[in-house]
Amino acid sequence: AQEDTRQKGSHFRDLTFGLLDCSTAMFFFLPFFGQKTDTAIQAVSLLSLTGTEPYLRGVYFLVTIGIVLTGIITLALQNCPVEIWVKNKRKLSLAMNAVGALVFIVSSQPYAAAFLFIFLAIKVLMLINWQ
Predict the structure, then answer these.
(1) For residues 26 and 120, what is the distance between their CA atoms, to the nearest angstrom?
(2) Is the torsion defined by CA of 89, 68, 101, 111 positive or negative?
(3) How far apart are CA 89 and CA 14, in angstroms?
(4) Alpha-carbon gap, residue 56 to 62, rounded angstroms
């Protein structure tokens, strides 16, 4: 019974981590990024962001795609028994979110950084509560 309860808890954590990571795909479509215009700052989606340097926009895409791919892999490999994956899947998800939040903070994108920081806080609280 204890093994079954532990396995269900692990499955729930994997599902939550994967869905939080996949929900980062909303950055492509919802206006979380600030773009400076002549007179104001306009909120735009990542796909519509044109007012930044190309290398910075590439980093935004890379971070966002990396987090989403981490979520997809986490959901796809929920029952994978490989020891390396079992030990490191949550660390990978936490690291990707932390790097993403840091990138958006450093580049002055507060809304995207806030969402990734909230996702990171949810994950950390889940790990603290279940360990």
Answers:
(1) 16
(2) negative
(3) 9
(4) 10
Q: How far apart are CA 43 and CA 48, in angstroms?
A: 10
Closest CA to 27 of 76, 62, 72: 62
DSSP helix/strand/coil, 131: coil
What are the DSSP E strand ranges found in 24-123? 33-36, 41-44
Q: pLDDT tens track of the chain, all 131 residues?
A: 677 777 777 788 889 999 999 999 999 999 999 888 888 888 999 999 988 889 999 999 999 999 999 999 999 998 888 899 888 999 999 999 999 999 999 999 999 999 999 999 999 998 888 76
Find where tokens 């002549």 sit: 38
| Of 97, 86, 102, residue with least CA distance to 125 | 97
Q: Which of 71, 70, 65, 69 is nearest to 15 (CA)?
A: 71
Q: Mark out the alpha helices in the chain (DSSP H runs).
A: 2-22, 54-76, 83-106, 110-129
